[in-house]
Specification:
The chain is mainly alpha-helical and about 150 residues long. The chain has helices at about 5-15, 55-125, 130-145; strands at about 20-25, 30, 45.
């Protein structure tokens, strides 16, 4: 048996005797607010049953939990759906941040390569390296690597 979707489950709950339900005499299921007159008898798990006493009592208890469990399934599915949306958003944001980080890393690497080229030029093409150029180069490297 496959569990029904939330819409079907909600309709089943709405159409059934309102819960919560409870057991009476261990094997009968009644609405929790019944006056014990038996007028709102939901199930008799001992009627013509070939199950042993333990199974009959367990069946009655499980049937009595049905409205509460159905409502809990609906609530948990709603929570799971909301968490899934949040998780999907977080994954999308993380992906965007990783792309941005990779792009920034490429820009830093390119700027660092430009600084290396500038340093080589200052040392090799001009034949000298003055302190003002070295200070400017150091300042440039500091801004592109932080």
């Amino acid at each position: 048996m496959t569990l029904p979707d939330n819409e079907t489950l909600a309709k089943l709950l709405a159409d059934a005797t309102p819960g919560p339900w409870t057991t009476f005499n261990a094997t009968d299921v009644f609405p929790d607010d019944d006056d014990d007159s038996g007028g709102n008898h939901i199930a008799d798990c001992d009627m013509g049953s070939n199950f042993n006493t333990h199974e009959i009592i367990s069946n009655a208890r499980l049937i009595a939990l049905a409205p509460t469990l159905a409502a809990e399934v609906i609530a948990l599915r709603a929570t799971l759906a909301a968490d899934s949306i949040i998780t999907d958003d977080a994954v999308a944001q993380l992906g965007a941040a990783m792309i941005e980080n990779a792009e920034l890393r490429k820009r830093v690497e390119a700027a660092d390569a430009m600084a290396d080229a500038l340093e080589w030029f200052l040392e090799n093409e001009n034949g000298y390296s003055d302190s003002a150029s070295e200070i400017s180069l150091a300042a440039y490297r500091a801004t592109v690597t932080t």
